[in-house]
Design brief:
The chain is mainly alpha-helical and 120 residues long. Helix content is 76%, strand content 0%.
Length: 120
């Protein structure tokens, strides 16, 4: 089953709703919650590493314990966690990301390709 693609508005609306849900559930003051949300990224990246090790069978005790689909899911968790963290840090998360992506694309791909890479 393939999910319908999200447009930019739906993506950022979902990120905002996730952030609000996390804010509501957090027992920590906002400054501490922000720091913990940033640290959550490290946990998620560690899960990517664990999935890659499992998909390649690098742990002889566990063998092949994950699939490349698991790696994809963990990478998606990293992206979502990063977007929620960015949205927590700034209400202008969408613009911050777009500006940064454009800068990276321009630096990496050259100015002719930067508009395509940023989706503009």
């Amino acid at each position: 089953m393939t999910a319908a693609p999200l447009n930019d508005t739906e993506l950022w609306s979902t990120i905002a709703r996730l952030r609000a849900w996390l804010d509501e559930a957090s027992p920590n003051p906002p400054a501490e919650a922000l720091l913990l949300r940033m640290l959550k990224l490290s946990e998620e990246v560690g899960e990517v590493a664990q999935a890659v090790i499992g998909a390649t069978g690098q742990n002889p005790r566990k063998g092949t314990s994950h699939t490349w689909d698991d790696v994809q899911a963990e990478l998606c968790d990293v992206v979502i966690t990063a977007l929620v963290a960015l949205h927590t840090l700034t209400p202008d998360a969408e613009q911050v990301l777009t500006t940064h992506l454009t800068r990276i694309a321009r630096r990496s791909l050259g100015s002719a390709n930067s508009r395509d890479a940023a989706g503009t």
